[in-house]
Write a structure and sequence with these properties.
Helix content is 35%, strand content 11%. By secondary structure, it is α/β, with parallel strands linked by helices.
């Protein structure tokens, strides 16, 4: 297997001055791959040249990934790695958030996390593998008071040195406006769905204007996403005619074009794969930028194609999933 020198991978600068590698390996594969398979992918990815790994408590594989990271650190210094994890919905609140972070570090066998995110702004739990129409009768609308209790815990974790940076995920502009108004320590990053058919330009620009680094999940249009996240209206980035034309012209796989788009645009993609050739091609793609004319062509394919709709977090049975995303410009109640 070929290797890519980590210093050839672009990075972005967080407001702290720290560098975050410009592409990461996602570890959400629990719907299709075992925890051991994901952990083996982490080991191989580090050998190929990855230094950024995106984890989460709800992925159900942090213990195995932690063993892999321990193996990685036999050859790679901890300071060379950037490890992210996320607080799951059933652990919102001050005490729960502290406990969750400590448990995560134990599972990942780390003395600190580089980035700790609140995975979703809702404390609405759903069991793993639940059907699309699952509804938790205890689900509630967004509570800024509860979110701030959770955020204060993240600030405390940062103050203690257990977490180098704190951030958000799956947020909207109205929710971020409330958060930024009330924080003592601002979010360093926001993780959100981004790919050419769903660019979230307003949120992307809002993050940049507030020194929040955008991290993009589903950078390839999530072709392996769970069935509960599929609808008949979904578009495919990998087979979009514009993407295919650009890929043919560059002699590249469409996935490589999607990742070059992300890096050229200025956000961090976190593709997931357990296949060596795919991992290598994804990492190499991050070292190459697209010309301006291709970026303009891809800008025009935006069609509001949100793939991860989050409907299992809804708090009323009669709601549309769009209520989660504050599309009217105010927090939906």
């Amino acid at each position: 297997m070929d290797r890519i020198r980590p210093f050839s991978i672009p990075s972005l600068r967080l407001y702290s001055g720290a560098e975050i590698p410009g592409i990461g390996l996602g570890t959400f594969g629990s719907d299709s791959y075992s925890a051991r398979e994901v952990a083996d992918a982490v080991r191989l990815a580090a050998d190929i040249g990855y230094r950024h790994f995106d984890c989460a408590a709800c992925y159900g594989n942090q213990k195995e990934v932690g063993l892999a990271l321990s193996d990685v650190q036999k050859n790679v210094g901890r300071e060379e790695l950037f490890i992210t994890s996320k607080l799951w919905n059933d652990m919102h609140g001050y005490d729960n958030a502290i406990l969750s972070c400590v448990q995560t570090m134990e599972e990942l066998k780390l003395d600190y996390l580089d980035l700790f995110l609140i995975h979703w702004p809702f404390a609405n739990y759903h069991p793993p593998g639940c059907p699309e129409d699952y509804h938790n009768p205890d689900a509630r609308s967004y509570s800024h008071d509860l979110y701030m209790q959770t955020w204060r815990a993240l600030e405390e974790l940062h103050t203690r040195g257990l977490v180098r940076h704190i951030g958000t995920s799956n947020m909207t502009i109205p929710k971020l406006e409330m958060l930024l108004r009330d924080v003592d320590i601002a979010p360093a990053a926001n993780e959100m769905e981004m790919h050419p058919t769903f660019q979230q330009t307003d949120l992307f620009d809002y993050c940049l204007s507030n020194e929040i680094v955008p991290i993009g999940y589903c950078p390839l249009g999530s072709p392996s996403r769970p069935d509960r996240d599929r609808t008949a209206q979904d578009a495919s980035d990998l087979t979009h005619p514009v993407v295919l034309e650009i890929a043919q012209r560059h002699g590249a796989h469409p996935a490589e074009i999607l990742l070059r788009w992300a890096v050229s645009r200025g956000h961090i993609p976190i593709p997931f794969s357990v296949k060596p050739q795919q991992m290598y091609a994804n990492l190499k793609a991050a070292t190459q930028r697209l010309p301006d004319e291709d970026m303009r062509a891809l800008e025009a394919v935006e069609c509001g194609n949100r793939l991860i709709k989050g409907q299992v977090f809804l708090w009323r049975r009669d709601q549309d999933w769009r209520d989660l995303w504050d599309e009217q410009g105010v927090v939906t109640r």
